């Protein structure tokens, strides 16, 4: 369970008072309204062993900001020597070695590079918790039209999640996975791109496809695996893909999309295209070898790709504190020579601004960029999971209510005078109705013929596959009650 601790506003020193701090499953991070560096809080008392998550647990505070603290940034001997030699002059300035990558100076002091810096990398945001614009923030303005579309899409995604989730509970689809809590990441990142930019998703980013115009009917057809599904019913629900929308088909093995993204971005570079690749990944996905291969490859070939990491605190039941000891993911960029930023993933304007800037740099300077968005997976991992078995209900409720990205953005759009209560009701009723209709249509649409299950891989199917096909047809004929009646055998 996450380690809970509390910092009252009195304990926050003056210089950080202007920065609001979040209750985060990945420890407290200073929130910065500009993308530069700033101080961050050093929360809680020291805990010295690896069992920190089970110690120092304080009662869950009510009605005040709660900080999920961890103490892995505790001072160590190495940290006290913190990076001093990186900034100080070499004690023998004339002694250096020319090494691939530049000159390296020699020093005669034995200093290890510390494992972490004293302060965590701050988190860029533009809107405060109430959706008020933070004075002097550094952000990309969005037009009324774009803002309203962003908000409407965030609501549609929420409703889509609710209805498909219920459909799964009713046994109408076999599986589902929601994006609850990550609506701003989904929609705002998509809004900052152009349709020529190529998306390689993990799986919790259907909002990008929604933004690009994939219809509710197309979502329903895929989840129901009918004849209209572009994957011909061969994939599990939520494995969307659309050539028309430059959205690669989701594949279950996580992180495989990253080296592919680097390669595709390199091809854009070779063709002098004014576009980039955006590859999404979860915090858990960063532990895969493909994450490292993808980032390194992209850095070396200077490929225009944005690696967008949704750090939502959990990889199924594994908390980020059990996933890595680094200051999240943002710091990993530098190890590969990649420019990086940490952003508040629940602030749609900050995500939009960071992705716009990243896109400009990726294309104009032909380089990869890493974005780490701090957020929280409000739903269970998928319909195969019950997250109350490994995390506290209060933690979920806190993020669902106090940190909801949709309400936060709504407040801003409403304060701009671009949204009303009446529009809200109309939108919600209309999307709900469209979705229910889409599911009904998808249910009535025939399933793809059985032959499709064996096509598209081999020109000439090997004999073992032919045997499997014949065996399957025989089984369906023998047990018709166990298979949908509309499958053509
Ligand atoms: C290569 C690989 N290893 C393990 C899995 C099993 N698996 C599916 S989702 C998941 C967790 C991923 O967590 P994260 O990347 O944080 O994404 P989130 O679900 O939080 O959005 C794991 C381990 C997998 N699909 N592929
Ligand atoms: Mg995760």
Automatic annotation (TrEMBL):
The UniProt entry, under InterPro entries, shows: Alpha-ketoacid_DH_E1_comp, DH_E1, THDP-binding
- Determine if Oxidoreductase is one of this entry's keywords: yes
Instruction: Name the Pfam families on file.
Output: E1_dh
In this chain the Dehydrogenase E1 component domain maps to 153-449
In which organism is this protein found? Hibiscus sabdariffa (roselle)
What keywords would UniProt list here?
Oxidoreductase
The record ties this protein, via Gene3D superfamilies, to:
3.40.50.970
What this protein is called in its record is: Dehydrogenase E1 component domain-containing protein
Upper taxonomic classification of the species? Answer: Eukaryota, Viridiplantae, Streptophyta, Embryophyta, Tracheophyta
